[in-house]
Amino acid sequence: MRQFFITAAIGVLTSVAFLSPCLAQSQDTYSRDDDEDEEEESGGGGGGSSGYSTGGGWSTYGDTGGDYIFVPDSSGNGRGVVISPPQTADRDVASAQSGAGEGRATRIFAGPGMFPPEHFAAYAIVAFKSRPLPSDRDRFVSICQGYVAAILAYTEVEVPLDQQLVTVWPVSHDYVAVAAMSESGLTGCDKAVDEYGLATSLAALEDARAALDADDIETLQDRRGPFVLAWSPTHQKGAQDALILRMDLSGVETAIQAREKFEAWRDEIEAKQDLWIDGWKEDTLSDTIGNWADRWGNEILSFLGKD
Amino acid sequence: MEWLSYGAWGAFGLLVGIGLVTYASPDTRAGVGLLLVICLALSLIARGVWGWATARPEKEQADKDEG
Fold it and tell me: Could you list the residue ranges that cross the membrane (chain B) (predicted)?
């Protein structure tokens, strides 16, 4: 009996040792969140539970250009209506105030001419590191489908644009964005993936590198992405030491996983609009293990099957 | 008896695997299969290592006795 318990302990320890890379990765990734927790507990912040630091709120992303936005016609003919930006002298201040507690998380496919969407209270971007190849296009589509499934389009909510916290999927042309928005999620995603806005995405990643420390830059370089990035305050995009709210979707393989991630993102940015996180969006250990198994399951089992 | 022991350890590994699958909830069958295979393999490896570690001193002792 004693021998059985000893051997059982060895088995469990061996399992833990095998899974330790996942554990270590998860802890490394979110170590900065833990630091922020301590800061928050010591007096900062107003009610956040993990990984948040105070200082500003959602505000407009970028400070140049973007004086209009296309709202696609319901007819789906590819034409859109131009909406003027809010009539305010200082959009950042107005956006930050309106975004504190009333904002809704929304989504939009946006072309280069629609960037940055300054009339929204704030925006984030889904940043891939490359366009899809035939071999990984399905993953891109799955992530897009999860994005569409979890977050309402900005036309679906009955709140003004300047109270919307929009998460942008960049596309290469404005007309593609209009067409993708006018179609249902699944068909819209085909267009949005095939015409992904890589230039906008790479610019966002470059700006993120300017603000992150060496470990986080390494994460951006080593992981395949995509990353969801937002700046605080947004006009600091590209500046050093800017606070960046970010979420790593590298482990996401299926549309269901993507939907869960974007649901969490949506809930978080809606609940914590007056707070900012300087760290990676929290992920759970179970997510890490599940995503890892989904990512490598086919390859490893196929390899074993060949032998 | 040896094989029975391996079978028991394999069953134990599968139980751990089921627990891990329940916890991690992979979305794909391949993900579920991979976790189960890993747990099964680890349990059998652990049994083998344990068997090797415990049997070796006895064998050495037997060799000494023969010598």
Answer: 6-25, 32-53
